[in-house]
Specification:
The protein is an alpha/beta fold. The chain has eight helices and five strands. The protein has a five-stranded parallel sheet, with helices on both faces. Strand 1, helix 1 and strand 2 form a beta-alpha-beta unit.
Length: 206
């Protein structure tokens, strides 16, 4: 039997590509500003196969966010549809159905009604539409996960701008330009948390 999930833990199921990196940073900043702890599959060191690590991470988190905005509905000849995110969402839905009091999942999209095309089995599920912008991510995070007077979107944007402007120095320090690298992810979380001294994160009701 797995241990009880971290009540602040949020598993981030997002595409690991360059085009998504600005929203990826927005998720990290927004969640930490809401007093939550984001987690990525890439932060766990190897050993077991990747799918087992992902499932264990999902089980350890009270919440999960599944951003399907980069799933290609009609891919061109040089691209391929992305199945990792729907696969991890399916694993999460199964876990939540078997353990309804231990996990809550949310689906994010960039456009209204697109979810009905990409994953029609989720018809009836309300997607959080972020419109492909950091402000959209912050607004939807506040609505879905905010508690006890969450910080306003302009404040979250200030923290985001500071963190995002430091991305190149974080890359240099870690010897990689991959924003989804484990060391870069941990530095992004650490910096977002440290800025709470100037922009205090929201208190969450226990």
């Amino acid at each position: 039997m797995p241990p009880l999930p971290d009540p602040k833990g949020v598993f981030l199921n997002v595409p690991y590509d360059k085009e998504f990196s600005s929203l990826y940073v927005a998720y990290i900043v927004g969640l930490i500003q809401l007093g939550l702890a984001p987690h990525l599959a890439s932060e766990i060191p190897g050993g077991k196969r990747r799918l087992d690590r992902i499932f264990e991470l999902i089980q350890s988190c009270r919440f999960s966010i599944h951003d399907l905005s980069r799933v290609e509905v009609s891919p061109g000849p040089s691209s391929a549809p992305r199945f990792n995110m729907p696969l991890e969402l399916g694993m999460t839905i199964t876990w939540e159905m078997l353990n309804p009091d231990q996990h809550t999942w949310f689906v994010w999209e960039s456009e209204p009604y697109r979810l009905q095309q990409s994953v029609s089995d989720l018809n009836g599920t309300d997607a959080n539409i972020h419109n492909g912008t950091p402000e959209g991510v912050f607004s939807r995070l506040r609505n879905a996960l905010g508690r006890d007077r969450p910080p306003p979107v302009p404040q979250m944007r200030k923290v985001y701008d500071l963190v995002n402007s430091s991305l190149n120095s974080i890359f240099l320090r870690n010897g990689t330009r991959n924003p989804y690298d484990r060391s870069v992810f941990l530095d992004l979380c650490s910096m977002s948390l440290s800025l709470g001294a100037f922009y205090p994160p929201a208190r969450r009701a226990v």
